Amino acid sequence: QVQLVESGGGLVQAGGSLRLSCAASGRTFSSRAMGWFRQAPGKEREFTAGISSSGRNTQFADSVKGRFTISRDNGKNTVYLQMNSLKPEDTAVYYCASGRLAYATISQNDYEYEYWGQGTQVTVSS
Predict the structure, then answer these.
(1) pLDDT, tens digit, for every residue of 80-118?
(2) Which of 1, 72, 97, 111 is most buried by a 10 A CB count?
């Protein structure tokens, strides 16, 4: 069983930055791709960013490319999402998720992720 706990959300003005963290329990963290997803009110959950188990490969949704970066520290069982140049449309609950299969490639499909955190609210004011 893996538990994921997100932190770092909050209220920020447009153009500002936030860094989200996701701390994982369990021994499988370093062998799993990790993803960040977000869900805005009235919208479906969407892929935001993903990182391979080694950290060498990353993927981003077109809407956040060039503004968000994802990284991980396997020694600390933590994955990060650095969000810069935030826009009001980035307002959402952000979830981290752990990939279902060991050493699998990054997936943008939420069914490829087995464990999910409880989410952290990010609100960007205009």
Answers:
(1) 999 999 999 999 999 999 999 999 999 999 999 999 999
(2) 97
